[in-house]
Design brief:
It is built from eight helices and seven strands. By secondary structure, it is α+β, with helices and mostly antiparallel strands. It is globular. 33% of the residues are buried. The model is unreliable at 74-92 and 96-101 (pLDDT under 50). The chain binds zinc ion (2 copies). One zinc ion (ZN) is lined by residues 146, 148-149, 151, 174-175, 178.
């Protein structure tokens, strides 16, 4: 019982993405990170919304969750990554690659979440917004740039996507200080001319169902195996900016539904 007075956790060194690995009873369990002056705790597969005043308080919370039975759920059973680096890439989501900084670091990386992220980003492009960070979920503030005037700030996807089948983004004025509402349609038409039906990027992005299914299967297998670095690399194909993002999102939705149906038919669990 002498152990009781000692800290249950070990806080690792800051990783390059700003997260600190937290080891509980010798097992890598989660990470803590600072964002906008507060500290947050994360265990892969669990969303912890509380904010903390310092990294130790956040790490203590991971211990508390661990004691209540929370375990990182991303790595496959028996395939727990052995190194801090692997654990870091397991994070709460897919981390940015060197070439692209805006993957989805704060979402639990499941295929349905990725599909939502891709659809949200395609719609943002149509609405004249450019994401400045990965899709955080519909009801989390999302940092983005207004392509009509250059303003940057945070918007909620749940407001921009409209609701109850009404696709009208709110508010109509976009944000304080934007161009007059009467000039917005013309400006959006100009921006629409940038979009393409086929990808023209050096790193190809699938816009048809068959190649999309291949990418989804690769991401699905990597997520299932807890191979987060592979998942991140394969996810580039669907998450990187692309002039054909609308076609890509449509192909992704079709491929995802088709895959889910096929897996249901053979009685497998949908990942
Ligand atoms: Zn604006
Ligand atoms: Zn492309």
């Amino acid at each position: 019982m002498e152990q009781q007075q000692q800290k249950r956790y070990v806080l690792g060194k800051r990783e390059e993405d700003g997260r600190y690995p937290v080891t509980v009873d010798g097992a890598l369990t989660g990470t803590v990170h600072r964002r906008h002056g507060s500290w947050y705790a994360a265990i892969p597969g669990h969303r912890i919304l509380e904010r903390f005043s310092d990294r130790h308080e956040a790490a203590e919370h991971i211990v508390k969750w661990f004691e209540q039975g929370a375990r990182p759920t991303v790595p496959a059973p028996g395939d727990r990554p052995a190194t801090g680096l692997d654990m870091r890439t397991a994070g709460t989501g897919l981390l940015a690659t060197r070439t692209y900084q805006h993957l989805v670091p704060d979402l639990v990386p499941t295929l349905p979440n990725l599909v939502r992220a891709v659809e949200a980003m395609a719609r943002l492009a149509q609405l004249g917004w450019e994401p400045l960070e990965g899709y955080p979920g519909a009801d989390q503030p999302w940092r983005m740039k207004c392509r009509l005037c250059g303003w940057t700030g945070r918007r909620f996807w749940s407001h921009l996507r409209g609701r109850n089948g009404d696709n009208t983004p709110r508010p109509l004025t976009r944000h304080r200080g934007c161009i007059p509402v009467s000039e917005m349609a013309a400006k959006l038409t100009t921006l629409a001319a940038e979009r393409r039906r086929e990808c023209t990027c050096a790193f190809p992005h699938p816009t048809h169902v068959t190649p999309m299914l291949e990418v989804l299967n690769k991401i699905g297998k990597a997520l299932h195996d807890g191979a987060m670095l592979s998942a991140t690399i394969h996810a580039r194909a669907i998450l990187e900016p692309c002039p054909a993002s609308t076609m890509r999102a449509a192909a992704l939705r079709l491929a995802h539904d088709q895959r889910a149906r096929a897996r249901r038919t053979v009685g497998q669990k949908i990942t």
